[in-house]
Specification:
The chain is α/β, with parallel strands linked by helices. The protein has a single domain (2-117), classed as 3-Layer(aba) Sandwich (Rossmann fold). Helices cover 39% and strands 20% of the residues. A five-stranded parallel beta sheet has the order 2-1-3-4-5, sandwiched between helices. Helix 1 links the parallel strand 1 (2-7) and strand 2 (28-32). It is globular and about 30 Å long. The protein starts with a strand and ends in an 11-residue tail after the last helix.
Amino acid sequence: MKILIVEDDEDQAQDLEQTLRREFRGVQCRRVELEEDFQNEFEEIASEHFDLAIMSPPPGPYDEAGLRCRNKLKQDSRTATIPVIMLSVLRRDMPPEVDYVVKTPELRELVEMVRKIAKPGAATTRSR
C-alpha cells in the first residue's frame, strides 16, 4: 500500500508513519509538509499512484488548506479515485463526503479506517 501523508509537524508525521508501518506490512509513505509543497509537487504526486492520502492540517484556518488539497486530488482525473482521510486534533463539521478522523495518540480509529479502505489482499500485520 502506498500512502501520501500531508502533515506539517515532523514528530507527528514520524509517529503516523511508524504506526502505519507497524500495522500494515510493506506500506510505503511519502510525506508532504504544507499545502504549498503539495501544490508545487502535485504533478509528481499525481504520477505516483497512491492508494490512500491522509491529510492532517493544523487546527484553525489550516483546515481549509487541507480541504483545498483534498479537493485538488478529487478534481484531477489522475488522482480522483484516491481515498482521502482528513485527520485532525479537533472534532469539526466537515462536508458529508469527507472521511474524517479525530487524531488520538494511539491512532486506532485511523488504523481501522485504513483497514476498511485497503484493497482486498493488502498485507496487514494484525488479523482483522
